Amino acid sequence: MKKFMTICIALIFLALAGCQPTEVVEPTQVLEPGETEESPLPTVTPLVALPPLTDYCLDCHTDKDRLVALATEKEDSHGSESEGVG
Question: What is the reported pLDDT for 9?
Answer without folding.
Answer: 92
